[in-house]
Amino acid sequence: MTFYEKMLKIDRRFIYFLVAGAVITFLLVRIYLPMTVSPPAQLIFDRIDSIKPGGHVLIAMDFDPASAPELYPMTLALLKHCFKKDVKPIIMTLWVTGAALGESCVTEAAKGFDKKSGIDYVYLGYKPGFTIVILSMGESIRNTFISDYRGNPTGNMPALGNVDKLGQLDFMIDVAAGASVDYWIAYGKERFKFDMGAGVTAVSATQYYPYLNTGQIKGLLGGLKGAAEYESMVKEPGLALKGMNAQSVVHLMTVIIVIFTNILYLISRSQLKRRGV
């Protein structure tokens, strides 16, 4: 058996070991590959970056733990951008399974910037009703959420300032795992006239490009790549950039392995023909 034939019959577990090693290495080591930012992601960054200090951005965390690997880092990067610009985020969710995630995310982001709940930001939490909640917030955010997630009254909360309606927001973004973006557009943006963007899972990103092309949403973040792009722009590298690095390396390894094994196969076949096998 020739060297090339032996290489073709190598134990596949060796390849699994190489892939696992590459993933673990690039998740643990602080090595960041260059990131090209897409225009839809740049639109959201520029929109939030243009808001004056003291402005308000509503972030709806409409996702659950199943989609958190993609959307949690995205939300974290958005919150960090708001805190860097001294913009006051108002965070809430239409998904009951996302209520605890929202609290965890905003607390993690606030720690790095010494921001205080109720003063620099407010986490309103979950309210049942979906479309009813959106319509109600269009009339009065304070009446819809009488208290925040921690039970503090929102009546005179400094974080809300003079904002009490969706139409008074500087910007709104729905980070969603389902169809809530459609509801925010239909029952929120079109009715109460405010600018909004969207952050969605990679598998559903393509269905929101028509909204982007018509100007109904002012920017779009798609999946882990969208989160990594935003981390890159905010200059706050985190889980998304690490994940994209590991993913990119594994894709590159896959291409190299496919090319290498095909070359080995062609050489081995050529040698067999010469031997008349």
Verbal overview:
With 277 residues, this protein is α/β, with parallel strands linked by helices. It contains eleven helices and six strands. It has a six-stranded parallel beta sheet with strand order 3-2-1-4-5-6, sandwiched between helices. β5, α9 (209-213) and β6 (220-222) form a beta-alpha-beta unit. The protein is elongated and about 85 Å long. The chain starts with a helix and ends with a helix. The mean pLDDT is 91.
Task: Show the helix and strand layout.
Blueprint: H1 3-8, H2 12-28, H3 39-49, E1 56-62, H4 68-84, E2 88-93, H5 99-111, E3 122-126, H6 131-139, H7 141-144, E4 171-176, H8 180-192, E5 196-200, H9 209-213, E6 220-222, H10 223-234, H11 239-274
Parallel strand pairs: 1-2, 1-4, 2-3, 4-5, 5-6
Helix pairs in contact: 2-11, 4-5, 4-10, 6-8, 10-11
Query: Which structural class do you get from the secondary structure elements?
Result: alpha/beta
CATH architecture annotation: 3-Layer(aba) Sandwich
Helical proportion? 40-55%
Largest sheet: 6 strands, parallel
Name the quaternary structure.
Answer: single chain
CATH class descriptor name: Alpha Beta
The radius of gyration computed from the alpha-carbon positions, rounded to a whole number of angstroms, is 24 Å
Q: State the domain count.
A: 1
Tell me the distance between the termini: 12 Å
What is the helix/strand order?
HHHEHEHEHHEHEHEHH
Mean of the pLDDT scores? 91
Number of helices: 11
Q: Uncertain spans, ≥5 residues at pLDDT below 50?
A: none
CATH topology: Rossmann fold
Shape: elongated
* Count of beta strands: 6
Order of neighbouring strands in the sheet with most strands: 3-2-1-4-5-6
What percent strand? 5-15%
